[in-house]
Amino acid sequence: MTDATTKERPATLGRKIPAPAVTIESKPFWDAAKEGRFLLKKCAECNQAHWYPRALCPFCFSDKTEWVESPGEGVIYTYSVMRRSPTGPYAIGYVTLDEGPAVLTNFVDVGPDDLKIGMRVKVKFQDTDGGPPVPVFRPV
Length: 140
Fold this sequence. Notes:
CATH class: Mainly Beta
Strand order of the largest sheet: 6-5-4-7-8
Largest sheet: 5 strands, antiparallel
Helix content: 10-25%
Number of domains: 1
Order of helices and strands: HHEEEEEEEE
C-alpha cells in the first residue's frame, strides 16, 4: 500500500483478534472489559500499579493487591508498523499509562504514519474472535 492509501484508511483492526486466555486471576479484568472499564492491579504494600494483572506484586511480591479502575490514558513509549498484512498496515507498541505501567497494545483510529512517540492515547475496547474485548489505544 502507498502512503496515500495508509492516510485514507486509518489503522482500524480489520484483522481478527484471537480471544485472550481468561484465568482465575484475570477474570475480573475481562469482566470489566466487557463493561468498557479498564482495571489495573495496585499493591496495597508498596502502592505501585502493575500490568499485566496478577495476584502477586512484581515489585515487592506482596499478595495484598487490589483492582482499581483506570481512565486508561497514557503516552506512546514506542511502536512498530506491520506493513505486510492481508488487512493492510497496522501498528503495535507500548503505552506508558499515567499510573506508571507499560502496556503492549495495538493502535487504532489513526494511520500508522501519523503515530508519534509521546502522543497521548486512551483505551478503547476491541472485540475478539469469540472472547472478551481487549484493550487497544487510540489518540486522545
